Amino acid sequence: MSEKRVYFFGDGQADGQAELKNLLGGKGANLAEMTRLGIPVPPGFTITTAECTIYQQTGAMSEALKAEVRQAMARVEAVMRKTFADPADPLLFSVRSGARVSMPGMMDTVLNLGLNERTVAGLAKKTGNERFAYDSYRRLIHMYGDVVMGVDSEHFEEAIDALKARRRVKLDTDLDAGDLRELCAAYLDIVARQSGRPFPDDPWEQLWGGVVAVFRSWGVPRAVEYRRIHRIPEDWGTAVNVQAMVYGNLGQTSATGVAFTRDPSTGENRFYGEFLVNAQGEDVVAGIRTPQQINRAGRDSLPASHEARTLPTMEEVMPALYGELAAIRDRLERHYRNMQDIEFTIQENRLWMLQTRNGKRTGMAAIRIACDLEREGLVDAKRALLLVEPDHLDQLLHDQIDPKARLDILASGLPASPGAAQGAIMFNAEDAVAAANRGQRVVLVRRETSPEDIAGMNKAQGILTSRGGMTSHAAVVARGMGKPCVAGCGDVQVDAAKKLMTVAGRQFREGDTITLDGTTGAVIAGAPALVPPSLDDPNLSRLMGWADRFRRLKVRTNADTPHDARQARKFGAQGIGLCRTEHMFFGEDRIRRMRQMILAGDETARRAALEHIRPLQQADFEGIFAAMDGLPVTVRLLDPPLHEFLPQGAREIEELAGDLGVSVADIERKVEALHEQNPMLGHRGCRLGLTFPEIYEVQVEAIIGAALVQRSRGVDVRPEIMIPLVGARRELVEMRKLCVETAARVMAAKGAEVAYLVGTMIEVPRAALTADQIAEAADFFSFGTNDLTQMTFGFSRDDIATFLPVYLAKGLLPTDPFQQLDQTGVGQLVEMAVAKGRAVNPQLHLGICGEHGGDPASIGFCHRVGLDYVSCSPFRVPIARLAAAQIAIREELGG
Amino acid sequence: MSEKRVYFFGDGQADGQAELKNLLGGKGANLAEMTRLGIPVPPGFTITTAECTIYQQTGAMSEALKAEVRQAMARVEAVMRKTFADPADPLLFSVRSGARVSMPGMMDTVLNLGLNERTVAGLAKKTGNERFAYDSYRRLIHMYGDVVMGVDSEHFEEAIDALKARRRVKLDTDLDAGDLRELCAAYLDIVARQSGRPFPDDPWEQLWGGVVAVFRSWGVPRAVEYRRIHRIPEDWGTAVNVQAMVYGNLGQTSATGVAFTRDPSTGENRFYGEFLVNAQGEDVVAGIRTPQQINRAGRDSLPASHEARTLPTMEEVMPALYGELAAIRDRLERHYRNMQDIEFTIQENRLWMLQTRNGKRTGMAAIRIACDLEREGLVDAKRALLLVEPDHLDQLLHDQIDPKARLDILASGLPASPGAAQGAIMFNAEDAVAAANRGQRVVLVRRETSPEDIAGMNKAQGILTSRGGMTSHAAVVARGMGKPCVAGCGDVQVDAAKKLMTVAGRQFREGDTITLDGTTGAVIAGAPALVPPSLDDPNLSRLMGWADRFRRLKVRTNADTPHDARQARKFGAQGIGLCRTEHMFFGEDRIRRMRQMILAGDETARRAALEHIRPLQQADFEGIFAAMDGLPVTVRLLDPPLHEFLPQGAREIEELAGDLGVSVADIERKVEALHEQNPMLGHRGCRLGLTFPEIYEVQVEAIIGAALVQRSRGVDVRPEIMIPLVGARRELVEMRKLCVETAARVMAAKGAEVAYLVGTMIEVPRAALTADQIAEAADFFSFGTNDLTQMTFGFSRDDIATFLPVYLAKGLLPTDPFQQLDQTGVGQLVEMAVAKGRAVNPQLHLGICGEHGGDPASIGFCHRVGLDYVSCSPFRVPIARLAAAQIAIREELGG
């Protein structure tokens, strides 16, 4: 890293450039870049992000840094031919944060640095505008008092309100120069009284204070929270941009505006922006005055009733300057090869660019812009692909709440599965199914869900739980179903017995309508308007075509039913990476037999019960194989502990006893005997197959039986049998033997053959540590990173809600390891298993089937460590295809 | 490994030697060695253990092996000047198994191979003893039919019983030659009828069948079970010894016997053995005839009423041969430098040695023999130390059931904590405490125990549970207390409500007396006699002195109270490696405050409740520091989840509500809110400290406060604060900061200083994977291998009882990983953490505090990977000292 602490820019010269974004932050790097391009930028300098990190450690600015700042200041003064805070003609400065990635509104800014009792008088005299001078001064005192000196903003607001009341005026702009001068005096008083220190007169003291405030703003709660949500590392730090002030509020020849080089909502290629004459930048953003459109096209596209339709455009009132701005727009788009979000100020007929950065855009816009830029020859297909973020696709795949709707937000939970859902509240699966069957749209509200709720979840528009995390049962199943879900919403109290939901002091009963925003986690009263997804966009098809051309990773899906399999195939899945078989024991026609099996006293009775389930499962597999004709289907043999299949409530136990003709005491004894302290680490996975081989045998019979049936019908079946929870070689050896012997028996009985593979999940840390031994008996490994994360961290997914939020808030972990694969820890085990497995068995096929298989950052990791495929829920397949292509392209381009 | 398959021995020549034990098994290697020493051994040959392993894989003997056997046979024939199964003068053979370690009675043997209708006649003629010949033949048919051809032994027994009834005689020896000839015919018939195949006439077919039977016997259930118990790997295999038969039953000049070169019970240096004239070896073992003592000293030491006191000794009836045997005894002891267990046969006045091996001995004998051999100059101190097994010490440290007592064994559970305990059954902790306070000796019988049972466990003589494994709460705590425990005894039904224990169809009620043998796992009705431990043995002190001189590993103890600390110090502990602090919140005077804290709504209320607990904890620590004056004390901050401290039953909740003045519903809500699916992976360890820092703060205040008090009294205190369950660097950084700041505050307030360390448990896999990062903030690592094993395997200790026994029976795992550290998997993480930790922080102090710290094999591992110390329960400290010395000596001696 460079030793240079301060980077000057101004008058066509700049120490920095766009490539130094990590060091200078996005804003600083782009200011330097624009300066180099000859675009008019007020001169200034950028203090590096490295200095921010040093400040976080030492709590002080070094003398070396201050010396470099003074040198840079001298260069700005030379360019401006003015002197910092010269009482005769004061050069004033803004101080703004600028991190590596944009964190809009998250950090602090101070404007007009350099004003004090003497320089404000000089400014008034020089500009001939006393009102402007004192308005600038009172803004400085207010912002500086708030941001640097910690004086609560409301004190200033009370003072100005009191003054306006005395003057009997409504708007700040109604106050005259005298009023503002009086206000400055009042403000100075407030600062001294509230902070116990006087407002600093010394311009340099003001400057140092401003810089330190920006450094400190990196650590304020809202910034920490923003980074947590957006997974921005704590140690990146922010740069500080110190820039000569320009003013858009010096009369009718001054103005200020913001613009996007293309429409950020639709992606349409038209210059789109707003501006205000005689105003400062914050006025545009604050929405006090209605901004004007910069061009006629923009004005014409406004709704007929919109106030700005009556206002003149910049194109009309400042045609030359608009032309200059439009030329800069073209220049920036050609230079950055991306849609830009720009800020400009016109001071007395002179245009200054204050910012350019890649513009935020909707999913739809992202796709259109990427394709348009490729058509326009600005980018090739690879770079076009990089312009679309995986989350953009996620937006496209689900209903969304209309961004224009007014929302009655009740509470916020975890955004567990994206999209909007609305319907009548139902408090249990049975009611949800019944209501849905009556044609009602329902939202299932539960404390938490369990496998027994599947039917209700399936019929619901969305799921709301008051407990559990991003990978709770509700969240995982909902994402698998592509259904919106808000999980772990602790502010919601659910009383299922009374069919009552209490939130924010309000009560909701069965049948009341709510809306969930699974993208943001909001729980909303009533039914705001929704907007549907648009999947048949030809631009999207074009984009996904490129993605498929460039990616190396294959993308499979996690699908348990023919319906999900077909859905996923439509989304481009290249096979099933995880077909769970739990639900094949849970269906109404099976659970009774399953319970009979569990309660059976010996193997013979168990086999008899299983015999009834087998043909039903074979039919399940036949449907799945047909849906995946020509593609591999990885079937995981039964994984959950048997107690999950037994009823827990007294009433249900009684029913079961009557049904099976056994005593309630017998069932209770069995429930008690199967109870586990830590079911996650208990009698499940292949431990079931090793202690009750008949269960796995029946499953293998059903799989191979189904494969033979479909093969005889001309379907190209590619079954892969996956043994869960293996931790030692001998477990897999034994289970492989069972599979091979069972398959041979079925094939001999039918007189036909079918090829199949036998492999294992790598989900127990010991499996990764001994992957060389396990690979001897495996055709494939599939990394079950959900459980691997649970065991590597010692985190039970169901129980982390009490501490993981604290961990993320305190920065003890950079991200939720169940959402983004922990490359430092869990990733080590994955890499180890890949290396050890391939060393022994070079043909070993490698994939991932945990939730991480649909997370872009984790997909990047999977690509780098050399997996063959990722597998994710159907609705994330397009996202995974894109992410896989992007990592391949970035690798190729060296980015 | 050698390619040679068959090793000849005979007439002073041998291909093998004692060092080839792994290849030839113990028996074969020693037969070769004795032959080389010029000791008379019937000639023969040994088929290697490698061939056994090949047989397990291929299921057949190779032609190459058969060819080598034929060559070896020719050499035996040459030595004996006879031919295998020569009808005129048949050379006969025994086939015996012989594994690397002795597995007494576990595997199969066939004698008299080579006999058939023709050779039996030749044998009768040659020996002039027809009865002997047909007796030998019927033994062959019986053994071969049973062992090789799978005919149930009872068929033969029925036939001989029927014959004896017809002849109206009682003993086999009352049958004459004609009877036995008739019996042979009947036996041949039984074989043909039961097996469907005729008994093989062909001597070579007999031989191959015998060899294969021995190979197969490696896999029979009783052998598998024996290996499981004694932790003998499956892949060692057994060798096969084929040896010319010699006969002790050829009249009054023939005899057979077994002897120990020293007394195996006391260790006394006297030649100790038994023999029978005109008998075969099996007669001595079977106990049909009362054996005679080999010498007068042995006879004189018998109880006055003993039948053998009236019988002549070998010293008297065969003085020359006794002299020869005594000389061989001296020779063997000098050669092997260890007490030997020998077998011999005298055939017509000629002495043959059939076996020598290191003799099994009691703990007391082992210590005496080791010290005596050193005094006699046969071994030096290092080799003397290797003669005592760690388990020998374990025997010495606990009361034992008198080996002579007759036992009414009800059931067998896991031998969870050694020693014998007897007393009145009590079904809950409260009753146990009350009864003990009345002066009654009690045994606590529970389905399983929990921390709330501690007081009752402490007052009980021993603990019996019907559930849980070797590392269940009951087992761990009992071992910690040095109290006998039988755990997971599934045959026992415990109905605590009815105060009723049902076992083997019998009912036991409160107050009934039972006895537990924690060394064997037996549950015994009534009160058989016990024998006390003898700790003040000067030989033991001498031995432990050597151990301390040779070991590199330090040995600390896991102790939570001043009492345990003093106990452990007496046993030689060099500090406390793990002081758990849970019980400091559980005491009667504290649990109320703890519950108040848990139920508190905010930090202030939590702190107020904790303030009451702090002085009590400080007093606890003062006692522990005093007991460990001059030695380090590692204190683990609170680890278990908070719900463990709340009552679960309705009555208790009601009481608590009344006591604390809160509503029952409030407590129920809290219990429900704190409920966890997998508490093992939930909100515990440092996750508590990070979310409720006040708990850890109060603990640190108590620790440092206590240290300052004791220091002011002149005690040399060395506190080490240990943070549990760290998985990420930042967790430890944050907790270290809390410790350092809190300690500084306490020291400033008292105006005094004390040195202390802050370190962490390595018990989460991720901690091992990121040990380089974590080491930056740690003064020490202590491997918590209990939890590390749980998470690395994905095994919940509380829930493995349903599958781990199956795993061990099927050989899916070589040993219970909670008893012996899994070096392959868990060990990799330990090694990784050692390497990564030391690379970053060369001063890092390393220890282990899991249960494995007291397991000799695991201690060997700890030595090899370079830990600084092991820590174990007080009663295992001497064992750990010995084991640590043995590994150091073995390393030095290259063994």
Describe this structure in words.
Two copies of one chain form a homodimer. In chain A, helix 6 packs antiparallel against helix 7, helix 20 crosses helix 36 and helix 25 crosses helix 26. With 895 residues, chain A is an alpha/beta fold. In chain A, the strands form seven sheets. An eight-stranded mixed beta sheet of chain A has the order 15-25-24-17-18-19-20-16. The first copy, chain A, has an eight-stranded parallel β-barrel with strand order 27-28-29-30-31-32-33-34, surrounded by six helices. The relative contact order of chain A is 0.06. The first copy, chain A, is 46% helix and 17% strand. The longest helix of chain A is centred in the last third of the chain and has 25 residues. Chain A is built from 36 helices and 34 strands. Chains A and B meet through helix 27, helix 29, helix 30, helix 32 and helix 34 of A and helix 27, helix 29, helix 30, helix 32 and helix 34 of B.
Features:
homodimer; 895 residues; alpha/beta; eight-stranded mixed sheet; eight-stranded parallel beta barrel; 36 helices; 46% helix; elongated
